[in-house]
Design goal:
Elements: H1 2-21, E1 25-31, E2 34-40, H2 42-67, H3 69-152, E3 162-164, E4 194-196, E5 203-205, H4 214-258, H5 265-276, H6 301-325, E6 336-339, E7 342-345, E8 352-355, E9 358-361, E10 367-369, E11 374-381, E12 387-394, E13 397-407, E14 414-415, E15 420-424, E16 434-441, E17 444-446, H7 448-456, E18 459-461
Antiparallel strand pairs: 1-2, 3-18, 4-5, 6-9, 7-8, 9-16, 10-15, 11-12, 11-14, 12-13, 13-15, 13-16, 16-17
């Protein structure tokens, strides 16, 4: 009600204002002595005033546009240029951010590929080393099985009761190394590219990097870098373990040869190299102080370590080959030593004399085995030795077996390790069934017990 009274008040005021301003007016016109007039009502005056206002306003607007047209156009141009510059700047910022992100992705991919290629190369080198290790230890392993078989009088399948001492174990503990070199594809061609973590079973999807946000991408890349670093540490620990084991194994093999007291291990290696025809040559170029000559500037410490381990494995193979040719095994499975090497009282005349071997008492017909591979150089009767067999094992080693009851080989025959060469008897100058066993090196008779003792460090009876 109050609002209606207010609106009525305003309307009355407006009507009063119009009536005051636009009162009825008359326009008089005199023509030829006649007077005429035109009456203008307040409404008519109001209409004419409105028309006049609109007309004058249009004239003013048009005049301003005509006078300030260039300034207005220039202002619009400046505003457009400013908007365009801001747009281009924003686009440039977006393009720069995209290029930076893409560059980081490319760098990450290249680093990933380089690291995985390096890991794969290391894996191949380690695989080659393991293959070389198996080859290096195969000869003594075969001898071990044959030795065990002769202990039980059965085939080589009974080798479980005998073992090789100081055997190099396979390095344990460590993640499985899976070579991965494929490069992740981009855009619509992306496929799953996954690495499995062997320690916790986690999976890393490389293709997720292409569409991931910055934080998620950095986290995934960090996980991959961590995993690759673990694999690299695992490989390094593996090769460190192998190097330590091969160093120790070389020392142990050399100590076995030294126990015979007849030759230095390095000298025996040289003899074996000449016997195998390992001819080498070339000018001497020292590796000390020249990384380039040591394999190039790109050679890593890992590669140098691989080379050292490979050399150790080669030396191991040569040492084991030399040991395999030495008469270290006992020629009889079961015996009782009745006379040692050196000075003794002769069993027939009671006078002091030099005994050139070791007497091993056994029953008639006990099997005599070859303690090492070689070639039969003599088989027949020889004075006080009775029926005798001599075997040339190479590298200056020879063995002699006297007082045999039967000879099962002939001169010139190739003899394998633990092959039967005859039976125990009492032929020649003998007081009962036994084997007279001699070991010769470089034409000088040696103490057989030293060789047998060294053989105990290669073969250990169990059970």
């Amino acid at each position: 009600m109050r609002g209606m009274h207010q609106r009525s008040g305003w309307a009355d005021k407006f009507r009063n204002f119009v009536r005051h301003m636009y009162v009825e007016r008359q326009i008089y016109i005199r023509s030829h002595g006649h007077v005429q007039f035109i009456s203008l009502s307040p409404l008519t005056q109001t209409v004419f005033a409105a028309i006049a206002f609109v007309f004058l306003s249009w004239i003013a607007f048009s005049s301003v546009n005509v006078v300030f047209k260039e300034q207005i156009i220039a202002a619009k141009d400046r505003r457009y240029v400013k908007m365009q510059s801001a747009y281009e700047e924003r686009m440039a910022q977006l393009q720069s951010a995209y290029d930076e992100l893409n560059g980081q992705l490319v760098i990450t991919e290249e680093r990933f590929l380089a690291t995985t290629r390096q890991l794969e190369d290391k894996h191949k080198q380690l695989s080659a080393l393991m293959s070389q290790r198996q080859t290096a230890g195969s000869q003594l392993e075969t001898m071990r099985r044959r030795y065990a078989a002769t202990l039980h009088g059965q085939g080589e399948g009974e080798a479980s009761s005998n073992t090789v001492l100081m055997r190099v174990d396979e390095p344990s503990e460590g993640p499985d190394l899976v070579p991965t070199t494929e490069r992740p594809q981009r855009a619509a061609e992306l496929e799953r590219f996954v690495i499995e973590a062997a320690d916790n079973g986690a999976f890393f999807d490389i293709t997720g990097l292409a569409g991931a946000e910055g934080g998620a991408q950095n986290g995934t890349v960090s996980q991959i870098d961590t995993r690759l670093s673990r694999l690299d540490h695992a490989q390094q620990g593996f090769i460190n373990n192998v190097e330590e084991i091969t160093d120790r194994r070389v020392r142990e093999l050399k100590s076995i040869i030294s126990m015979t007291k007849v030759i230095d291990p390095d000298e025996l290696l040289k003899r074996g190299s000449k016997a195998r025809g390992d001819a080498q040559g070339g000018p001497f170029i020292s590796l000390a102080g020249s990384d380039a000559l040591a394999g190039g500037e790109d050679e890593t410490s890992f590669q140098r370590q691989i080379f050292r381990v490979s050399e150790n494995l080669k030396k191991m193979a040569d040492l084991e080959d030399s040991i395999a040719r030495m008469p270290l095994a006992e020629p009889l499975v079961s015996y009782r030593k009745t006379s040692s090497y050196g000075a003794r009282r002769d069993p027939f005349n009671g006078r002091m004399a030099f005994h050139s071997g070791e007497d091993m008492a056994a029953s008639y017909g006990a099997t005599v085995f070859a303690p090492g591979a070689g070639t039969v150089s003599y088989a027949g009767w020889k004075g006080g030795y009775g029926r005798v067999v001599e075997i040339d094992h190479g590298n200056g080693f020879r063995t002699r077996y006297g007082h045999l009851g039967r000879i099962d080989v002939k001169a010139g025959q190739k003899i394998a390790f633990r092959e039967v060469i005859g039976k125990v008897g009492s032929s020649g100058r003998s007081s009962g069934p036994h084997l007279h066993y001699e070991v010769w090196f470089d034409g000088i008779v040696r103490n057989p017990s030293k060789f047998i003792e060294a053989g105990h460090y290669v073969f250990a009876k169990q059970g």
